[in-house]
Amino acid sequence: MATLFPDSAVEMEVPRLIPARMLNEFTYCPRLAYLEWVQGEFAHNLDTLEGRFDHRRVDRATKRSFKGPKKNADASEPSGDAPEHESEAEADPPPFQTRQLMLSAPEEGLIAKMDVVDLNSAEAVPVDYKHGKVPDTPTGYWEPEAVQLCAQGLILRENGYHCEGGFLYFVESRRRVPVPFDETLVNRTRELLCEMRAAAESQTIPPPLDDSPKCNRCSLVGICLPDETTFLKQREIEAKSEPCPEKRVRRLLPQSDDAIPLYVQKQGAIVGKSGDEVTVKFKGELLQKVRLLDVSQVTLFGNIMVTATAVRELASRGVPICHLSYGGWFNAMTLGLAHKNIELRMRQFAAAADRSQSLDMARRFVAAKIKNCRTLLRRHLDDDPAHTLDRLERLIPKALTVDRIESLLGIEGTAARLYFGEFPRLLKSEIGFSLEGRNRRPPRDPVNAMLSFVYAILAKDLAITCQSVGFDPHLGFLHKPRYGRPSLALDLMEEFRPIIADSVVMTVVNNGEVTPDGFIRQAGAVAMTQATRRSVLSAYERRMASLVTHPIFGYRISYRRILEVQARLLGRVLLGEINEYPGFHTR
Asked: Are residues 442 and 526 located together in one domain of the fold?
């Protein structure tokens, strides 16, 4: 089976076999199943990790001695094995038990890896392990669990086994709950199977659940953004420019990330792995060690080596290794396999090829940037004799209504000249720094050297974010493709340049965290010393970790988390869930 994207000539094939586990997810939440099965999204939370831990018992062995349960073992836990000798066989032999059995049923369109199957000459009985306690329901189980188990029963039937029911084993309660495969459950399972296949073939993501308590413990809530998507769709319907006060947007995603970037600047250092830690060594001396769980990315400046074991482990965990030149030029990124969400990339390429849609995206990036430039100036300027704030404000509606990308770039350039004409006034003159306009490649003064460096770091972070969401970071809408340029990352960076990068430079200068002596001047170019770069990186990470109130949704999250939210909202636009990209701008 194949479907065609409306704006693309590339077909996407829907797999013939649907995993029974995905049928469970679809019964629980159709959107969750679509995200996992069609778009290849997944994220762990405490519940999923505990569930994986509970399955150790299943993974531990395929067989166990048939001499009965071990002393003090839980008799309610599935157990048993094949007879070791023919003499043990009887007319009605005890059950043979197999674990981690993978079977498919092409006629039903199902496939499953079954935790445990008890087999004897008369019947096959699937047993599915479940994290937690037996639910307080009349049947002792929820519908998604029963549907998944019934799907396993249908697979066993198609493979020639007699199967009239199964068991759900709840680890925390240490109890098995019987599930009969009656006609009602079988029909319901097949009905959901047809609905799930139809949803996948339509290539239309199901709508999010509306204010559902299911979202609170969903591991994919930060990817799904259920309340945010619903809120923006409702706002578009009502054609309001301000958030609806009667509709509360829950903050279901964490405020900030526990893992943070690891920066390595020591030339000749070696990044390796020791147990569950990343190590940094120089000439055999240990400089630093960090738990792998606490590392979100590894950023290397200049000539630094990474061992094969470290590369493999970081790639398997989805932790990128970013390679920058000593001066901070973003050269490369080492990652594991590409993100599975090919659907999003197809939509991205189709939108980039559509001039109208591409222009609409670009207009919103530029308008948000101008708003944030104006906000930064308004907060820190004591007076405005040149009426720069008014002039910037008049450029915003022009940016949103321009009909050519060349005109938009002209408006963006005008706004940048106005903004950087006032930016030196934000710096304390007694510190000894000055700025005469924006210059780069190479920067000719310390302030521009810091600006270029922080822009490069921010572009690197957004390239990582785009990659993790499922985009191709090299294809943008405002910045056209160019060899080696992460155009989409630069697009998303526009709105964050003033409030993150420029704010960092202003902070380190005005707080005295850097001094004019911390720079190297040679042949008309200016570069930072290692100590100055360390200070700037520290200020940058503080800024990224600081909490800010989202102007649309009203909850407080870190700037680093906001980068991901904005990238995912862009994905929601491309997938057709919302019509307009909501640029991020502070008030």
From this structure: yes
443/520 Cα distance (integer angstroms): 11
Q: Is residue 76 part of a domain?
A: no
Are 367 and 495 in a shared domain?
yes
Q: Give the residue ranges of DSSP H helices in 402-523.
A: 405-422, 446-469, 487-493, 503-510
Instruction: Give me the pLDDT at residue 89, please.
Output: 37
Domain termination site, one of 334, 359, 374: 334
Each residue's pLDDT tens digit, 321-330: 989 888 778 8
- Are 266 and 196 contained in the same domain? no
Supply the DSSP symbol for 166. Answer: E
422 and 569 housed in the same domain: yes
The predicted structure's pLDDT at residue 85: 34
Q: For residues 499 and 514, what is the distance between their CA atoms, to the nearest angstrom?
A: 20
* DSSP per residue, 352-412: HH-HHHHHHHHHHHHHHHHHHHHHHHHHH-S--TT-HHHHHHHHHHHHHH-SSHHHHHHHH
Length of the chain, please? 587
What is the domain count for the chain? 3
Q: State the sign of the Cα–Cα–Cα–Cα dihedral 49, 55, 56, 60.
A: negative
Rounded Cα distance between 564 and 354, Å, is: 25
390 in the same domain as 531: yes
> What is the reported pLDDT for 433?
76
Residues 6+ apart with CB under 8 A from 157: 105, 163
> Which structural domain, as residue segments, surrounds residue 497?
342-574
Whose tokens are 């006034």? That residue is 425
This model's pTM is above 0.85? no
Same domain? For 285 and 348 the reply is: no
Contacts of 387 (CB under 8 A, 6+ apart): none
Tokens representing 51 are 């569930």
Residue 250 falls within a domain, yes or no? no
Domain boundary among 303, 334, 365: 334
Q: How far apart are CA 482 and CA 259, in angstroms?
A: 32
The helix/strand count (H/E) of the chain reads as: 18, 20
Q: Which two tokens stand for residue 574?
A: 């491309």
Do 55 and 133 share a domain, yes or no? yes
CATH of the domain at 41: 3.90.320.10
CA distance to 360, 362, 366, 396, 477, per residue, from 403 (Å):
9, 11, 14, 14, 14
If you ran DSSP here, which 8-state letter would residue 293 be given?
G
Cβ neighbours of residue 563 closer than 8 Å, sequence gap 6 or more: 461, 462, 465, 492, 496
**Rounded CA separation 34/15 (Å):** 13
Residues 373-418: pLDDT tens digits? Answer: 999 999 888 887 778 899 999 999 999 999 999 999 999 999 999 9
DSSP code for 175: E
Amino acid at 262: L
pLDDT in tens, 107-129: 999 999 998 898 876 789 999 98
Residue (of 361, 259, 343) closest to 569 by Cα position? 361
Residue among 583, 564, 578 at smallest CA distance from 43: 564
Maximum Cα–Cα distance across the chain: 101
Are residues 330 and 346 located together in one domain of the fold? Answer: no
Q: Which residues, in sequence order, are bridge partners of residue 97? A: 118
